[in-house]
Amino acid sequence: MLHIIKERLHQQYRTLDYPAVQPGLSPRCLGRPAITASPCANCRACLDACPSGAVTVRPEGPAIDMGRCLFCGACARACPDSKIAFTNDHRVAAFDRSGLIVTGGAPQAGTPRQDLTLFSRSLKLREVSAGGCNACEADTNVLGTLVYDLGKFGIEFVASPRHADGLVVTGPVSENMRQALLDTYEAMPEPRLVIAVGSCAISGGLFSESPECHGGAATLLPVDLFIPGCPPSPWSILDGLLAIKHAGQPAPADENSAATSTRQQHDN
Ligand code: SF4
User: Is there a contact between 206 and 51 (Cβ–Cβ < 8 Å)?
Assistant: First the structure.
């Protein structure tokens, strides 16, 4: 008993004070891209460097599809004019697929589903790894630890889809997992929502061309929230989940930063 008390005193209080205090991503973790809007000459450096086809070059400059991006930073390193940079901003979630396209202009609009307010007090989630590599799954799983303390936001992962409001999908949806994913969705009571976590679940990621994969959750299910990354930071996932919880209503004072920011991003 004394040992337990001693260890408890040693460990002290480990839950981080989020979202009252915003997290700082590790310098090794790339967050939301920032692009300088100016026309490119005949340069294809960023396109050639990108392993996932996430970069396009438009007349006004480069654009990055965060739904395909691996956040490897190769395009930023390749650009001779430093038009592409990566911030440490973890807030990358979007209610709309088009909201994941980052250009030099203002973020594009995305509108949350009207009935998301139903989940503002309680949100139960069922996770399906549809051919994932376990990276997105690990960063989702870690939200249940005392550091992130997901339960304090009224959000929980549950074992049965019949108890779930939302389906969290990770992985590119392999053929082997297609029917299991559809069955899980069908087992959930309505209203239900779908959250695609990670580039694979959003677009198929590096596996988008594979005949054994279905190019992400949106090819089979109506996706209501996209959380990009490879894998997304746990903070990015938490920020996206809080955006659902706060959709269509003012955020509480102690939870205002991340969710409000994400919502404003789509309301602009
Ligand atoms: S950071 Fe994203 S857009 Fe840039 S090269 Fe890597 S995968 Fe492509």
Answer: yes
Strand spans (E) along 183-244: 193-197, 225-227
DSSP state of 227: E
* Ordered domains of the chain (ranges, CATH): 33-90 (3.30.70.3270), 114-267 (3.40.50.12280)
| CB of 69 shorter than 6 A to ligand 1 | yes
Does any ligand 1 atom lie closer than 6 A to the CB of residue 181? no
CB burial string 102-133: b at 16+ within 10 A, e below: bbbeebbebebbeebeebeeebbbbbbbbbbb
Q: Output the CA–CA distances (angstroms, integers) from residue 16 to 24, 88, 146, 150, 153, in the order listed.
A: 12, 18, 8, 11, 13
| Sign of the dihedral defined by the CA atoms of residues 129, 219, 143, 162, in that order | negative
Regions of the chain with pLDDT less than 70: 108-109, 248-268
Ligand 1 pocket mutation, candidates 35, 75, 101, 207, criterion most atoms within 8 A of CB: 75
Q: Give the model's pLDDT for residue 154.
A: 93
pLDDT tens-digit readout, 165-193: 999 999 999 999 999 999 999 999 999 99
Q: Specify the amino acid at residue 244.
A: I
CA distance 46 to 212: 28
CA distance 204 to 114: 27
Note the pLDDT tens digit of each residue in 232-260. Answer: 999 999 999 999 988 766 555 444 444 34
